[in-house]
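Batch job 17 of 40 flagged for manual review because the log was empty.
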Amino acid sequence: MTEDKPLNVLFLCTHNSARSILAEALLNHIGHGKFKAFSAGSSPAKDQTPNPMTIATLEKAGVSTEGLTSKSWDVFATPDAPHMDLVITVCDNAAGEVCPYWPGQPATAHWGYADPSETVGTEEQKQEAFKQTLHQIKRRLDLFTSLPLTSLSKMALENTARDLATK
């Protein structure tokens, strides 16, 4: 990363409807132009869209939802796709899957979060699950975005991102 080029970060999950979308929107919101976040899924449904509670949670937190879509990770494995500096899986299913070849061999890390869309209960309990997931992601991203990224090599970036999985 250089001062004038943002660090591209891809968040992966299975369906690309909740956790990866939350992470993409939040990093773009708090990254202050130092980061450009993307998200994708290993196997989104044919007509997959972001979970409505994902969108509502982001909007309630004051985070832009403009341009958020569910898409396959294949979109980012093509030669003309944006070069990723870091790929972070945010669900255990995607972490265990064989990922496509990423041009440029980006650093990788896994930050596991429970799937808020699988919460059983009242609407209020479901909304709370999405809110808590957003807070958990924000805690890691606040630490991540405070790093002096201009001094990080690929290996240091990967190690730091993996260390944040325990935070």
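Reviewer: the log was empty due to a logging misconfiguration, but the result itself is present. The two ends are 24 Å apart (CA to CA). Unflagging and moving on to job 18.
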